[in-house]
Amino acid sequence: MTLIGSKKTASAAIQMALTESREDEKLLQNRFLQEGIRSAAVDYGGEFITSVKKIVERAIVAAKREGVISDTHTDEGAVAGATREALSQIMPKALGLNVGGKIGIARQKDHITVAVFFGIGLLHLDEVAIGLGHRAVP
Question: Which residues form the signal peptide (predicted)?
Answer without folding.
Answer: none
